[in-house]
Every structure is written in C-alpha cells, then in structure tokens.
Amino acid sequence: MALEMFRKEETLAMRKKLIGQSCRLFYSDDPVKIVRARGQYLYDENGKRYLDCISNVQHVGHCHPSITQAATTQMELLNANSRFLHDNIVQYAGRLAATLPDKLRVFYFVNSGSEANDLALRLAHQYTQHEDVIVLDHAYHGHLTSLIDISPYKFQKLTGQKEWVHVAPIPDTYRGIFREDHPNPAQAYADTVKDVIDKVHQKGRKVSAFFSESLPSVGGQILLPKGYSTKVAEYVRSAGGVFVADEVQTGFGRVGSHFWAFQLQGDDFSPDIVTMGKPMGNGHPLSCVATTAEIAGAFTANGVEYFNTFGGNPVSCAIGLAVLDVIEKEDLRGNSSRVGGHLLDRLRELQTKHPIIGDVRGVGLFVGLEMVTDKEQRTPATDAAAQVVRRLKEEYICVSTDGPWENIVKFKPPMCFSMEDADLVADRIHHILTDMERSHQKLDSGDLRRTGVILEEDKGRNAEVFNTTNLTDPYHN
Prior knowledge:
- By secondary structure, the chain is an alpha/beta fold.
- It has 13 helices and 16 strands.
- The protein has helices at residues 8-18, 65-77, 87-97, 113-128, 145-148, 152-155, 185-202, 228-238, 293-300, 314-329, 332-351, 382-394, 419-438; strands at 34-38, 41-44, 49-52, 106-110, 132-136, 165-168, 207-213, 242-246, 273-276, 287-291, 357-363, 366-374, 379-380, 397-398, 400-402, 408-411.
- The strands form three sheets. It has a seven-stranded mixed sheet with strand order 4-10-9-8-7-5-6, sandwiched between helices. Strands 11, 12, 13, 15 and 16 form a five-stranded antiparallel sheet that branches.
- Helix 3 (87-97) packs parallel to helix 10 (314-329), helix 4 packs across helix 9 (293-300) and helix 11 packs parallel to helix 13 (419-438).
- The longest helix has 20 residues, at 332-351.
- The chain is globular, with a radius of gyration of 23 Å.
C-alpha cells in the first residue's frame, strides 16, 4: 500500500507541528521536498532534478541497486539480534580489517557515528584509567551528551567547557596561527598539543585521549599538514593517552588515494582507535569502532558485558559488505581522485578570476571553497557564501557551508560524482560570482543584500524536469 503524498505546503505545516524545531531543514526559508533519488541526483515532488553535492552519507550513490538488493535479500532471509551467531558480522569485520593497519583488528559494531565516538571515549577511559580529553577547536564529534562535551562547535554555545576537556588550535594553514608560509606547520601545530598536555599535567590531571577528525569538516574542510598526527600521537602516548581518529565523515575512500583519511599522514602512522559511520551503510544506520587487542582487552576486563542489539545485525553487515564491493568494482576511489582533482583545478581557476575566493583546498571528493572579502586580511565573507548556496539552489545544485564563520562552501557529494557534474558546479559558481560582481553588490560580510538576479542565458540550465516513471538511471548509462 503506497503512502499518502502530501502537498509540499502540507508537509511543511505538519513538520512544524510534529517535529522538534531544533531539527532544522536544509534551505529552511524555502525547503526542497525530495521524493526520490538516484546516484548523485535528487528529485523533488515536481520531478525536477537537483545535483547533490551534500550527501556524503549516500557514499556510492543514492539507491544503488547493489545495495538495495543486498538489503532486500538479507531482510527476506533473516534479521536478528546481533547476539546470535552469524557469518555476516565476521565476514564484514574481516573485510574492514584488510583496509586498516595490522594492529587495528578488533571491531565493535554500532548504529551511528555518535554511538561509535561515545564508545571510543569509553574504550580510551577504560584502557588508560585517565579522564582528560584533548580536542581541536571547532570540532564536532556527535550529538550525545558525552560528545557535546568534547565538541567545541557545540559546547561553546551551550554549557561551556568541562574541566576534563582541553582544546588545541585547529591546524589550519590558511587561517590558523601557523600558515602556509611556515617552514614546518606540522611540527608547530603538534607542539601546541604538547603545550596543552603540559598544562594538563600542571593541574595534576592525566590525558586519556587525543580526539580528532582525520580531516576536520565542521571546522572548515581542513587538511592536516602531513606529519602532524604522527607527532601528536607520539606526545599523547608519552603522556599515557591514546590517539582516536574520527573517520565518520572521511572514511571509505573519499580522499581517493587512500581508503582512510588518516593514511594521508604517512605509512608510519596508525591511530589507536578509529571510528567510522556515515558512508558505511550508504544511508542505512551502520557504524563501527576499530581498535587494538590491548585496548579491547582492557574493556573486556572491566567485567561488564557490552552488547548492542542492532549493531552488526545480518542486514546491516550485508549492506556494509555490498558497499565495499561497489567501491571496489566501480573504482570509486579512482573516480574520487580523478573527479575531485578536476573539481579542485576548476575552482582554483575561478580563484584567479574572482577575488572573493580566498582559498580552495581539498583531496578527492572532500573539497572546500573559502570566501573572503579581503585576501590580505582573509576576512570571512559569510553572507556572500550564503548567497552562493542560495543561488546554486536556484540552479538546482545543492551545496552547504561550514567553518567557524560559515564562509566555506563545501563539497562532499556521492562518490559517483562525474566530470560533467564538476564542470557544471564550477560553471554555475563562475556565473553566479560574475553576476554578483556585475550587480555591484557590496561583498562585505554583514552588508550583502540578495538581489535574486540570474543571468538570462543561465536560467534553467540544470532545471530538467523528468517523468518520474521514466527517469534517467545513472547506474545504467
């Protein structure tokens, strides 16, 4: 029996009445109602197609037939509590182990990135018998209370910083305290962590863990300088702590050259704990913590059983295995390198034409375009970035912003993103910025006014309307 379809206005009115208002929508002033998706494309209730540059969760593409088939087949056969013995969980753990450093061989399956990061905290505390955690400024690690406590992005707006939480500078070589002209930013930023550790010890406290995204995302699509994590891990381990790499946003080949973003730091670096989530199930709730036998042993030795009713269930693991198969069979890591490299090249070309583009950075299909009102002062162009997002939506391209000042237009699309998609995005951004300049708008942060002007020759370039019974299928071109 098909579910009833409401008009957009009805859906929005019901959502406002029934759903907590802190659960915000994309484009909250004029939300897009999406009724179906395929590959890197979203379709609204009128059949209009949007290019999706946001959904890093749908890692191998929306509604990939291999994923939906794996889910359906296993669901029809069995889905049971993960405390029953089953092949899928051990097969999946084995496949994941093959992608990780040799010492990371014990897995705990859970259902979300927040659950994974919360468990990582427990593992670190149990193993080290210490409490204090060091995190990067503007970090975000999840919505549980324990994770809000270690997420400056959240706690700075709420109850403030706990005594056991310590914040190190984010290693941003564009805007941070050590920039691109520094002779060794990796060492310099690592030494700031050493300074934090020293201050912790001066208070008579001890470090349990250093917790960091392998590529800070909410912090502004930041690329950690190579060698930073290796040196930080040395300092943290010397203090009796462990290094936790949060790969919830960046794992599973998004960076192209490597399966995990922490591997960009070099072959000699391995975290003690790795958390993973979002792309793992291609939209299905699936996440995991990988750690060493020693850390897992300490967790077992506390005498308290750990179980997760749904984590690692047969359906979830079947989906996880199918995602790994698609990444390999469709060479999505290679596609990420090729298409991501092309997108970076196109955006850097735009940087030479539009002074509002202060920096373009990224690796694979993890890309950020930082907008500034003054290239010398690097003043964040927050309102201009917001206008670019709105204008791209009018061109049927979905993007969003990030960073402490929300001035970074970010791109983390499904991994099936194509060269043509990259060209379309770059072309649209070029025309939007040209139009903004042509309209003589003030691009000073806080003084931007939307005009809604779109160049006549650009109208509707991507506003394709599809018969929903005969949609273009990106999996069968």
